[in-house]
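My current task is to audit a protein record that another person submitted. Alongside the sequence sits a line of tokens, each denoting a local backbone shape. Please read both lines and tell me whether the tokens look consistent with the sequence. Do not assume that whoever made the record got everything right. Thanks in advance; the entry in question is below.
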Amino acid sequence: MIYQPDQMDQAYQTFLKAYPAYQNTLALDDLRATQYHRLDEQGQVYLDYTGGSLYADSQLTAHMDILRRGVFGNPHSSNPTSMAATQLDEHARRYVLEYFNASPDEYVCIFTHNASAALKLVGESYPFEAGDRYILTFDNHNSVNGIREFARAKGAEAIYVPVVPPDLRIDEARLRVLLNETKSGQKTLFAYPAQSNFSGVQHSLEWIDEAHAKGWDVLVDFAAFAPTNRVDLSRWKPDFIDLSFYKICGFPTGIGCLIARKTALAKLRRPWFAGGTITMASVQGDGYYLAEGEAGFEDGTINYLNIPAVEIGLKHIEATGIETIHERVMCLTGWMIEQLMSLRHSNGKPLIRLYGPVETEMRGGTVTINLFDPNGQYFNFREVEAEANLHNISLRTGCFCNPGAGEIMNNLSEADMRECFRNEERMTFEQFLMVMDGRATGAVRISLGVASNFADVYRFMTFAAGYVDRQAETAGELMTAERH
């Protein structure tokens, strides 16, 4: 296919024939025109929804109306303005549980700064001891990887389950072997992402029940999954769930949550206390009583003026329809992957290498690639991003805080990576490139979401097709020429 602006309408009609379900999502075009119109007014192609979603105009209006009408004080009091803030924040807390279909009899919602802060709460408080085990998958976000440091500091063992190229799905046989290796009295925590923020792979939620049946506590990272998929905690019941709300509804930033089963929360042992987390503390008595439930985990003053915006944002997504968003994203993702895989140089060599599943089954709208020239030399991802910037295309490059998937993608061995940490001195990036020895050091990630449309994907395909028959060493020169 030749990607030219004047041929987009024809391409769209062909797309509709291949993906007729897309027509069930046309209401999102009206939503984009009214609530996300700034995209088209500025000519922006936003393809970084896994990095963060976009907010609707109505979310800002509703939130500002609340702030204009009310007088709200710090919730840690019983004066009128404090109680007004408490009422709004507690209503939002209840709605978060309602949105994810989590019974308040079984789950609590703990507000945090983001998903990483939620994961840190689990890591620092999980009662690991010598002989305990922490199992996690290769393709976790670094905030899940970081929990291993808490586990190891307490004498527990951290074990990774590998992903298998080319789809980068988990080695389920190895996972089940590890889940079966438990001992009486051993505390065990299993952590994995519902959707990889690197490859878009969606891992089986059936693993939750399987692990529970063998005595494991289960942490599922829903940060990349929740923006375009239904999370039903009445059907799937992990012990710990982390989320960042800006990834779901764009605004507010700086607020996430840990949704925890009450039975699992009771196992945690906080290593310290802070303002707002205790019912009583004494300097001379040298003691304290931690508050029960979520209050014991919300350090200091919660972000009380922005928390009401969480409920506004989630209600916007609910009104839009998460299933409608999912349908649109998967139609666009399927077409984009097909088109990317069809791009070839004149010598027949493929332009694109995809890291993750080609099919749309059990995958999300996150697509990670690298581009290669006719001789098989890869286009530096930083140069690709810089050139995309010139076309007002926002995508993301690097390894996306997911080193395990990146290491598998680049065929890096354990020996390769241990070399990076052989000396006490911090390795520079230039030294790291020597270890890589010409291999790709990152990738290009395109991700779709609530306001994505066919024109966005077509414009990206026009951009990507511009690399056909180009030489990698000239990419920077061509980019410089376009600036002038």
